Amino acid sequence: MSTAARPDEETVVHSRTAVVASSVGLHARPAAVFAKAAAAAGVPVTLAVAGRDPIDARSVLQVMTLGVEHGQEVTLSAEGDDAPAVLADLAGLLESDLDA
After folding, report:
1. Which of 14, 35, 75, 100 has its CA 20 to 30 A from that of 5?
2. CA distances from 85 to 14, 24, 37, 42, 49 (A)
3. What is the pLDDT of residues 4-47, one digit of tens each?
4. What is the pTM of this model?
5. Is 70 one of the catalytic residues?
6. CA 61 to CA 67: how far, in whole Å?
7. Residue 10, SS3?
């Protein structure tokens, strides 16, 4: 996990990487399970893959449009005091079998 403060603000952005374990990547069902968990997290969370802009992790459609495949690394980011715990939970979810 990494943490960075923006130079113009006091806000701290927390980030964490995860490797997607779902055999179909973040397609329909796994994307829906992940987006639902992100929406319930209580803090805005973004999801990104290398070379693309971050998306709102609470949106199933945006998660699916990333085209994340099995074994691909993603980066989760969030702000706030609860962010480290939220990111740990969401990373754990991505690294689990969401196909079951």
Report:
1. 35
2. 10, 26, 13, 11, 21
3. 665 555 788 999 999 999 999 999 999 999 999 999 999 999 99
4. 0.87
5. no
6. 10
7. coil
